[in-house]
C-alpha cells in the first residue's frame, strides 16, 4: 500500500471513529476539533471536514475519549507507514501508547529514582514526579544481537574488549532494554494549557536522558494556525509539529480567504515548524 493510500485510510478512520459534528442550538453545529466559541475555528474545521468526508457523523465524544482514539489511530498510521521505509531504516521497532519512559535505555535510571522518591514524602513534595512521564505514543528499537551485526562479515567478537557499553548491542546487557526512538504527543485540539503540557514533557525528555535524544514531536488536528503556532513556534524543545491534514487545512484557509491565518500558516511551514502527517514517517527515518 502506498503512503497516499495509508494517509487516506488514516483520514477515513478518523472520520469514522473520531470526527463528530456537535449539535448546538445556540452556537450552531460544528466539528468536534473546533472551538465552538471561535468563528474562524468553526469555519476552518467545517471546510476541512467537507474535504475529508461527504457524510460526517453527528454526535459527541468526550475529550478524554477523543484523545485516546486520536492516539491509537495515529499510532496505527505511523506503524503501517514506517514499515514502508524498512529498507532505509531497518530494525526491530515497537509502537506503544502511554508507556513510562523509564522502560527505555536512556531513562532507565528514573525508575530507581522514582522508587526512592515514593518512599520519601518530603523528597516527593520537593522534587515532584513530573520527570517520569508517559508519552502518548512511543516508538522504540530493540538492541541488536552480535549474530545480526556479523551477518555479512565478522565485525565484532564476544571476546573483544571493544563496544562494551553501547546500548544498541544486546550482548552488553543481561536483560537488553529497548531504546526510545521517538516520543509523540497527540493533541486532537490545542488550547494554551495543552500546548504547555507538551513542552514540559519535551523538556523532561531532554534533561533526564542518558544517551541519544529521541525524536520529540507533536501531532494535532487543531484547525486554527494561531493556536498551532502556540506550540510550533520556537526551538529547543519540540522537533516539529505535524498536522493531521495540512494540505486540507491549506485549502480550507484559501477557500475562506483569511489573510491572518494564511500568513501564520506560511510562517510555520516556511519556517520548518509545521509539516503534514505524511512527512512524519520519513522524518522518523532520520
Architecture, CATH level 2?
3-Layer(aba) Sandwich
Q: Which superfamily, in CATH terms, is the homologous superfamily?
A: Type-2 restriction enzyme NgoMIV
Provide the helix percentage.
Answer: 40-55%
Number of helices: 11
CATH C-level label: Alpha Beta
Sketch the major β-sheet. Answer: 6 strands, mixed
Q: From the alpha-carbon coordinates, what is the Rg to the nearest angstrom?
A: 21 Å
Counted up, domains total 1
User: Which shape, going by the Cα principal axes?
Assistant: globular
Write the CATH fold name: Rossmann fold
Low-confidence stretches: none
Strand order of the largest sheet: 3-4-5-6-7-8
Draw up the topology in text:
Blueprint: H1 3-17, E1 21-22, E2 30-31, H2 39-52, H3 63-83, E3 93-97, H4 109-119, H5 121-127, E4 137-141, H6 146-149, E5 179-187, H7 192-207, E6 215-220, H8 225-232, E7 240-243, H9 246-256, H10 259-270, E8 274-276, H11 280-284
Parallel strand pairs: 5-6, 6-7, 7-8
Antiparallel strand pairs: 1-2, 3-4, 4-5
Helix pairs in contact: 1-3, 2-9, 8-10
What is this entry, summarized?
With 286 residues, this protein is an alpha/beta fold. The protein has helices at residues 3-17, 39-52, 63-83, 109-119, 121-127, 146-149, 192-207, 225-232, 246-256, 259-270, 280-284, and strands spanning 21-22, 30-31, 93-97, 137-141, 179-187, 215-220, 240-243, 274-276.
What does this structure look like?
The chain has about 290 residues and is an alpha/beta fold. The chain has one domain: Type-2 restriction enzyme NgoMIV (Rossmann fold), CATH 3.40.50.10010. It is about 45% helix and about 15% strand. It has eleven helices and eight strands. The strands form two sheets. A six-stranded mixed sheet has the order 3-4-5-6-7-8, sandwiched between helices. It is globular, with a radius of gyration of 21 Å.
Amino acid at each position: 500500500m502506498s503512503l497516499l493510500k495509508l494517509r487516506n485510510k488514516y483520514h477515513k478512520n478518523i472520520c469514522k471513529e473520531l470526527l463528530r459534528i456537535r449539535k448546538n442550538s445556540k452556537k450552531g453545529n460544528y466539528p468536534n476539533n473546533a472551538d465552538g466559541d471561535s468563528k474562524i475555528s468553526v469555519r476552518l474545521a467545517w471546510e476541512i471536514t467537507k474535504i475529508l468526508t461527504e457524510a460526517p457523523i453527528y454526535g459527541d465524544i468526550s475529550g478524554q475519549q477523543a484523545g485516546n482514539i486520536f492516539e491509537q489511530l495515529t499510532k496505527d498510521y505511523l506503524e503501517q507507514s514506517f514499515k514502508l521505509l524498512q529498507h532505509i531504516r531497518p530494525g526491530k521497532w515497537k509502537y506503544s501508547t502511554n508507556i513510562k519512559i523509564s522502560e527505555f535505555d536512556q531513562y532507565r535510571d528514573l525508575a530507581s529514582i522514582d522508587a526512592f522518591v515514593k518512599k520519601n514524602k518530603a523528597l516527593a513534595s520537593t522534587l515532584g514526579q513530573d520527570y517520569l512521564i508517559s508519552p502518548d505514543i512511543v516508538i522504540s528499537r530493540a538492541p541488536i544481537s552480535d549474530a545480526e551485526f556479523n551477518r555479512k562479515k565478522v565485525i565484532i567478537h564476544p571476546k573483544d574488549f571493544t563496544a562494551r557499553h553501547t546500548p544498541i548491542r544486546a550482548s552488553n546487557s543481561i536483560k537488553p532494554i529497548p531504546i526510545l526512538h521517538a516520543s509523540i504527543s497527540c493533541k486532537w485540539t490545542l488550547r494554551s494549557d495543552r500546548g504547555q503540557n507538551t513542552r514540559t514533557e519535551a523538556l523532561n525528555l531532554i534533561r533526564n536522558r542518558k544517551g541519544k535524544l529521541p525524536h520529540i514531536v507533536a501531532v494535532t488536528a487543531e484547525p486554527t494556525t494561531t493556536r498551532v503556532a502556540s506550540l510550533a513556534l520556537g526551538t529547543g524543545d519540540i522537533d516539529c509539529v505535524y498536522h493531521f491534514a495540512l494540505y486540507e487545512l491549506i485549502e480550507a484557509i484559501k477557500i475562506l480567504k483569511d489573510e491572518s491565518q494564511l500568513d501564520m500558516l506560511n510562517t510555520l511551514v516556511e519556517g520548518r515548524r509545521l509539516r503534514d502527517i505524511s512527512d512524519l514517517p520519513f522524518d522518523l527515518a532520520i
